[in-house]
């Protein structure tokens, strides 16, 4: 990866770009008049573009960048504010004051929705395996200014960590979170404008029995999986699949033993 700036970038933007290059231990390249596509082709690597407003991550084609946008979280949170239901919140059983571990953050729409659901006294930790993606989302969560105050506050409360969840889960103590959540890349593709730019940078490592067992150890209440409705992961990994007749993706849950006994 290389780091560059928008054309005609000011000194502040160039300084931020240079700082990002140092933090990722990659070269900083002066933009000049070259297009991002030409830079990506010449250096044969992704390009992190730093602008006045945001950061954008381009793959080797130099097209369709990934950048932060709350996406579906905007209307989902507004629906929750109006007293409507959200399938993800409902299946996860999220309530104010609960803790939520998102093992596959991506664009963070589910993390944002969860953060709103658990409120000021709750806690959301989001894990992203791709370090530049994690940085872009973390930066966006701290700077986004459109939308109701409750949405913005929910975004600010999320704690982001760049890590591979398979390794990260091994370091988390027992019963550390109420809910542990997985949303791996689907085995069958669903058209989505929000996820499309992320496909080049997403992790395609499969969800393993070992990772689910770690999640079960960590979760006080339940482990939740979001996947394509035809996915075999639900049955293979022991999740109870919640059928949603008109949806292309379903949720699955594994109740923690103590939680099941209480219920």
Automatic annotation (TrEMBL):
<dbReference type="InterPro" id="IPR029063">
    <property type="entry name" value="SAM-dependent_MTases_sf"/>
</dbReference>
<protein>
    <recommendedName>
        <fullName>Protein-L-IsoD(D-D) O-methyltransferase</fullName>
    </recommendedName>
</protein>
<dbReference type="InterPro" id="IPR007536">
    <property type="entry name" value="16SrRNA_methylTrfase_J"/>
</dbReference>
<dbReference type="GO" id="GO:0008990">
    <property type="term" value="F:rRNA (guanine-N2-)-methyltransferase activity"/>
</dbReference>
<dbReference type="Pfam" id="PF04445">
    <property type="entry name" value="SAM_MT"/>
</dbReference>
């Amino acid at each position: 990866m290389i780091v560059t700036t928008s054309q005609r970038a000011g000194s502040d933007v160039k300084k931020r770009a240079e700082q990002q290059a140092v933090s990722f231990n990659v070269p900083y390249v002066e933009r000049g008049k070259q297009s991002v596509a030409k830079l990506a082709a010449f250096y044969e690597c992704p390009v992190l573009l730093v602008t006045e407003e945001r950061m954008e991550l381009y793959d080797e084609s130099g097209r369709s960048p990934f950048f932060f946008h709350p996406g579906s979280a905007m209307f989902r949170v507004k629906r929750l504010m109006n007293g409507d239901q959200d399938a993800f919140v409902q299946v996860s059983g999220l309530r104010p004051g609960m803790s939520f571990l998102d093992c596959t953050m991506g664009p963070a729409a589910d993390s944002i929705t969860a953060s709103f659901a658990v409120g000021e006294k709750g806690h959301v930790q989001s894990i992203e395996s791709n370090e530049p993606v994690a940085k872009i989302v973390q930066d966006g969560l701290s700077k986004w200014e459109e939308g109701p105050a409750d949405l913005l506050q929910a975004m600010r409360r999320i704690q982001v960590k760049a890590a591979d969840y398979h390794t990260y889960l091994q370091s988390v103590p027992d019963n550390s979170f109420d809910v542990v959540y997985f949303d791996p890349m689907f085995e069958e593709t669903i058209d989505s404008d929000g996820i499309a730019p992320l496909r080049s940078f997403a992790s395609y490592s499969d969800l393993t029995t070992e990772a689910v067992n770690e999640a079960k150890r960590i979760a006080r209440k339940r482990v939740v999986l979001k996947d394509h409705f035809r996915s075999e992961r639900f049955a293979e990994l022991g999740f109870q699949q919640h059928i949603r007749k008109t949806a292309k993706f379903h949720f699955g849950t594994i109740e923690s033993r103590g939680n099941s006994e209480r219920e």
